[in-house]
Structure formats: structure tokens, C-alpha cells
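Moderator note: this is an archived Q&A kept for reference. The question asked for a predicted structure of one protein chain; the sequence and the answer are reproduced below.
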Amino acid sequence: MLLQRSLVIVVLLGFFLSVLIGPVLVPLLIKIKAGQSIRKDGPQNHLIKQGTPTMGGFIFILSSISATLIVTRFDRYLLVALFSYIAFAVIGLIDDHIKVVLKQPLGLRAYQKIIMQFAAALGVLMLARYSGLLPLNIYVPYLRITLEAGLWIYPFLIWVIVGTVNSVNLTDGLDGLAAGTMVIVSGFFSLVAWHLDFQSIAWFSGALSGSCLGFLVFNIHPARVFMGDTGSLALGGALSAIAILTNLTLLIPVVGGIFLVEALSVIMQVTMFKATGKRIFKMSPLHHHFELSGWSETSVVTIFWGITLILALFGILGIP
């Protein structure tokens, strides 16, 4: 009962810390003119968002880390999870800084971002290995079997980390979409980690869920702040680390199905256009396709949240 109460406390603490940090950070971002640039070839109703402060991911980053460290003891699991969380946040911060402070809209070049992401992913795996936490097999949900991976575990997990990070990043295109989806996904992993007795990971995941919920106070439509790459890359880094440490990486594409579909829509769009000069979707990522098909922004976000909730329930059936 005490552990259950602590889990509820860390979620609430994450929420309230976000709500307290937001009113301090948002005016600061406005003051330094950290305004978001909106692509002119996107949905026209997004043009009114031009100048909305970005890099707001600091709100839930600060609140989730603080809430976790207040409630639970720092251990090697948290060391790996927080390293991944912060490492990818730093990459996102560099990208955001180039875009909004140095006024170079393209930010980091694609190859620079990928190199940094692979380096961070390798760093996460090395830290997990030397902490004795790197899984040497892959748990297969629903079949409830484990597959020996050997040295193949390294390229597989690097692919998981980089893929997850970029999928979450691509999902961050509508007010509240990425943050709201992450509330559900991290909430799922919090309950599962608690069930599997990964206490510190459960608390961190719970704090992340509550903090993202608090961030929605400022990010729900019409958004007063965007999380930026600082926030979206950090969320991807946290999610992938949580899944690796609990050996539930194959549940990411299930529970985080929205992240997967958003990424696939971009891959399919680019591949088709390069091959034939034609497009599959009106615009990618997928959420923009629905917008251009006449759906309101809030409708897309709400439906995607609902789908994520259903996927989380389905994910419960796959846990050990």
C-alpha cells in the first residue's frame, strides 16, 4: 500500500511541479524571443502559431527529474534512464538553439543529428552494460518467450533508441499531441514497471506521465508553448531507456503505436515521392494528412489519444 501511495504521489508531484514551473519558464522564453517558426507549406491554420515560444520541454524535464529524486532513491536504473533523458534533451536543445536563437530555420543538419543520436544511444548502452543492466535477450510479448540476441543486441537496441526518439519527434506537430500521447504511454510503463518490481523506473515513468500532463496545461490547443526538439527528443530518449531497462522494447510499437504510424507515414511519403513523384498522403506526418482532409486539430489529437489508450490496454496483455 505504501508503494502504491508513493506512485500516486510522484505522478501528482510531477503534475504540480510542471504547473508551477510553466508560468516562470514561458515568460522567460518569450523574453529571449525563442519563437517557433512555422513551415509555410503546412496547414494554413498553423500560421497563427508563428512566434509561439518553444523549448518548453524544459517544463516537464525539470519537473519529472525533480519529482523522481524527491520520492525515490537514486540508483543505477535511474542513472541510465536519466542519462538517456538528458543526453537526447541536449541534442534537442542544440537543434532548438540553432533554429530559434541563431535564426537558422533548418537547425542541425540531418547527418549531424543522426551522428549525435547514434553517439548518445551507444553511450546509453555502454552505461547500461557497465551498470550490469543491459538485457542480453529480447522478450517477445504475447508469446511470452525470450530470444537470445548475443552481440546483435547492440545494433537492435541502437535502432530501438534512435527510432523511438525520431518517432516521438515526428509526432510533435499538433498542440498537445506528443505530450498527451506520452502521458498514456509513460503511465502504462509506470504501472508495468511497478508490477515487475522495477521500482525506480516505475517512479520515473510516473513522474514523466504526471509532468507531461501538467505540461498540457500550457500546450493544449491553443498552445501557449511548444516542447521543441528539446522536449520531444528527451521524451524519446526516456521512453526507449525505460523499455530497455524493463526488457519490454517490443511493446514500444504496440503501446506507442501512434509514434510508429507517424514515423512510417513520413518514410512511405518520402519513398513514394522519390520513386514516382507522387504522394500517398496529402501531407506527412499522418496528423497533417487528417488536418488537410478537413479534421480539426483538436479532433485529430483527441482521436490519437483515444487510440493510444486502447493500445495501452492491449499492451497489458503482453506483459510477462
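Archived answer notes: The chain is about 70% helix and 0% strand.
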